[in-house]
Fold Aminopyrimidine aminohydrolase.
Amino acid sequence: MAISDDILARAAPVLDRMLAHRFVEDICADRLPRDVFHRYLAYEGAFVETAISIFAYATARAPDMAARRWLIGVQSALAESQIPYFEDRFAQLGIAPDTPLPPQARAFDKRMLEIAERGSFVDIVTAMFAAEWMYLAWSRRAHAGPISDPDLRAWVGLHVDDTFVAQAEWLKSAIDTHADPADTARLAAIFVEVTELEIAFHHAPYAPCDEVSA
Ligand SMILES: Cc1ncc(C[n+]2csc(CCO)c2C)c(N)n1
């Protein structure tokens, strides 16, 4: 079995919990409250900025030029198109760019950055694989159904388009190319930990009063 598939198999219970998350179920049933979506977008904007740094660490530790080139392309796309997307949406929807982050969103950002600072190339790639693979899975499911809010529809659409699919698949195959089978248990633990943090992250916009106690 490919190492990436072994990781997915070992992480199946937590991955299934994320895919059955209230946030995902609400989008699939076209009933995600607008205020929840807008708070979520504010937390997301902060994470996309963190993702630029995460990919910068991955670029620095990349084993070859092909990987470096790919990762530089990812950083460029995040800086040149994702960040402007958030700036534009925040302005249109009246979301404050400095919306305070709840503890769960801060914990996710902090731990992802920590893995990037301290981990090996495959550790970083696995953390981002965890973050992207489940987005692809739930976005495909959500995209097949009706989504009334055009902004939410566009957001889900971003995660089923060819660019995002290629990115998630690149991460998966980078694990298979560069990881050693002896790394599997450590990488599966990273995948599980990141997915647990994702579950908490997606719970946060439902409980904005957590921001007060932050
Ligand atoms: C909390 C959170 N987790 C995962 C994703 C999926 N995702 C979409 S773009 C991107 C960064 C660069 O490819 C990632 C990880 C997300 N958006 N937000």
